[in-house]
Design brief:
The radius of gyration is 20 Å and the shape is rod-shaped. The two termini are about 35 Å apart. The longest helix is centred in the middle third of the chain and has 37 residues. It has one domain. It has about 70 residues and is mostly helical. About 70% of the residues lie in helices and about 0% in strands.
Length: about 70
């Protein structure tokens, strides 16, 4: 990108937007990993009917101390 085409304010805004997007992506990746772990655990149970998928996600998040 040619910096001469944008004002300093625009460049700073683009940098802030890029950083916000990186943070959102990291959060979404973390949530995805928790869901995958919960799904794996729920599938490996002998009787998964005692715990729903949502409950498993909540439990894994609690155990991992992840705020959702």
């Amino acid at each position: 990108m040619n910096r001469g085409k944008h004002s300093q304010e625009t460049i700073e805004r683009m940098k802030a937007n890029a950083e916000a997007a990186r943070k959102r992506l990291n959060r979404l990746n973390s949530e995805y990993l928790v869901r995958q772990k919960a799904q794996k655990i729920s599938q490996s149970k002998v009787n998964p009917r005692h715990e729903t998928f949502g409950q498993a996600v909540s439990r894994i998040a609690r155990e991992s101390q992840i705020i959702m």
